[in-house]
């Protein structure tokens, strides 16, 4: 009975969130991505990959607010999106922070035409690059669908990787919010203590299969000067974390 009530409450919240975005949501099973969403008085057209991962991500990011954007201060002015995919998070950030400058980074060249479409609709900037601790070259490993593509270091690779420090500097002297969903690359980026000192808030998907534990992740974030406000496992080896600078 309790599980049934929880499912009904989740469905109710999703329906309400969808109505605010200008479309109807019935259930997750068989969900079809909308062709457009509403942002205040504007209608934003969408061009998204038609795969199960993207459909799940749409529900997670735009309906469930998995990155907890609604809990952040409304005066967020700078947002760095690492692992932008087709731009769902950056769109959600635009809806929550209409005056923010948003930079989105995505290394998968197959996604860039789609990301470009969302960037135009959501008025944010995008860069066809990976982000890592240091600059260099990378190669991509494709997953079952577009959300599972992983990048790995390869100096003969055809993907450019910009350093986290350079990505932050391009956006501003300080950053209000950094989002990461880079399929294990987050652990490398979290080693840059100097650049993280310029960041006020983190929201991220973490991937324990990359070779670290949840305890190590929390300790690293705290060492960087943040307080962990929210952290939970969404599966056996991945989850979501939100932190704010002390």
Fold and architecture overview:
- The chain has a 7-stranded mixed beta sheet, sandwiched between helices.
- The chain is globular.
- The N and C termini lie far apart (40 Å).
- The protein has helices spanning 2-20, 52-63, 88-96, 112-122, 164-171, 186-189, 193-196, 214-223; strands spanning 36-39, 42-45, 78-82, 101-105, 125-127, 130-132, 136-141, 150-153, 159-163, 177-180, 201-207, 226-233, 238-245.
- The longest helix is centred in the first third of the chain and has 19 residues, at 2-20.
- Helices cover 31% and strands 27% of the residues.
- It is of the alpha/beta class.
- 36% of the residues are buried.
- The chain has a single domain (67-245), classed as Vaccinia Virus protein VP39 (Rossmann fold), CATH 3.40.50.
- A hairpin with a 4-residue loop joins strand 12 and strand 13.
- Helix 2 (52-63) packs parallel to helix 3.
- It contains 8 helices and 13 strands.
List the helices and strands and how they pair.
Blueprint: H1 2-20, E1 36-39, E2 42-45, H2 52-63, E3 78-82, H3 88-96, E4 101-105, H4 112-122, E5 125-127, E6 130-132, E7 136-141, E8 150-153, E9 159-163, H5 164-171, E10 177-180, H6 186-189, H7 193-196, E11 201-207, H8 214-223, E12 226-233, E13 238-245
Parallel strand pairs: 3-4, 3-10, 4-5, 6-9, 10-11
Antiparallel strand pairs: 1-2, 7-8, 7-9, 11-13, 12-13
Helix pairs in contact: 2-3, 3-4
